[in-house]
Design brief:
It is built from 2 helices and 21 strands. The chain is mainly beta.
């Protein structure tokens, strides 16, 4: 059964067979699914050295009265008192996380001439940048760290304003935006033992077993893990927070591993399942398992149990390996 796919992750190891009659095994050791760097909002860059910057991403030049592109230097020149505005669209599915906004800018400053410019995000002023006392040295990056609490779902406005008190124009030939990165998420899976039994030849042995589908970690662990990977948790209800955690895990692993991940971390639910053996040809031992996905970051973790009705659901291993008999896996109506 190994080498099947769960949410974009490949499961390569099956749970073990019993070692003998009543030779049951504990939960298996975790197997690595790889690591990723948290990337909720992948890097977008807008080339402003051309008169019509590519508008295929969600970072764009704002419409309306704007400084115009200037040929020759091939850049957007922002004079004192002017602003160059951008919009950035955050889909409803994207968690609000801290962002880094940057421009590539050139100014000419001396000991007496000063350039001063400031970023404003959704009406909130960020730290001003002052450059003075250094000769013109070409284009260089300037970045601001944007707190998540001033962002919003939908259209956000970023405006770079050249101060009225500035002595120089500023030339901007690129802009960029990226979600907070740096924290690592490590993925694992393991097999959790949910029930085991032994039946003599021709007998039937079954039991009703509570099988969990969804996260198996506590609510406090959920919030700690979410905060560790950069999500805002204050006042956040658990269901939307789990959706944000799922989005972050999937986006980060998709960016790192270059193929799509679609894991859903959900609230815990319990199904009552009848498990057992019926009419084995010889004495037979069966052990039942379910798959658990685990994601860790900086000492915090969250786990998702894959329950009944999902792939792979509850599966069994047996001893002897070639024993014949009816294995019972029946979810209650």
């Amino acid at each position: 059964m190994a080498n099947f796919n769960v949410g974009g992750f490949t499961i390569t190891q099956d749970p073990p067979n019993p070692t003998g009659i009543n030779g049951f095994s504990d939960d298996t050791l975790p197997v690595s699914l790889g690591a990723s760097t948290v990337e909720v909002v992948p890097l977008q860059t807008l080339d402003l050295s051309v008169p019509a910057p590519d508008a295929s991403g969600t970072l764009r030049l704002a419409s309306g009265n704007q400084p115009v592109f200037t040929a020759g230097p091939n850049t957007f020149i922002v004079q004192p008192g002017e602003s160059l505005a951008f919009t950035f669209d955050l889909a409803a599915s994207v968690p609000l996380v801290p962002l880094t906004f940057g421009i590539v800018v050139a100014v000419e400053t001396t000991d007496t001439l000063e350039a001063k410019f400031r970023l404003t995000v959704n009406g909130h002023d960020q730290d001003a940048v002052e450059e003075k006392g250094s000769p013109y040295d070409g284009y260089h990056p300037v970045t601001w760290q944007i707190a998540s609490n001033i962002l919003k779902t939908g259209l956000n406005t970023f405006s770079v304003g050249n101060s009225n008190h500035s002595d120089n124009d500023i030339w901007i030939n690129a802009a960029s935006i990226q979600g907070a990165t740096g924290q690592t998420i490590q993925g694992y899976y393991y097999w959790k033992s949910v029930f085991n039994c032994t039946a003599n030849q021709g007998d039937t042995v079954t039991d009703s077993v509570a099988v969990t589908n969804g996260k198996s970690t506590s609510d406090s662990s959920t919030y700690s893990f979410a905060e560790t990977i950069g999500l805002s948790v204050e006042g956040e209800a658990e269901v939307p927070l789990l959706a944000s955690v799922s989005y972050t895990v999937n986006t980060s692993f998709t960016a790192t591993q270059s193929y799509t991940h679609t894991v859903s971390i959900t609230e815990s639910e319990t199904d009552t399942v009848t498990l057992g053996i019926s009419n084995p040809a010889t004495e037979m031992t069966v052990q039942f398992w379910q798959l658990c996905l685990r994601f860790e970051s900086n000492g915090q973790y969250i786990e998702q149990l894959i329950g009944v009705g999902q792939v792979p659901g509850v599966i069994e291993t047996r001893y002897p390996a070639d024993a014949t008999g009816d294995v019972v896996i029946n979810a209650s109506a």
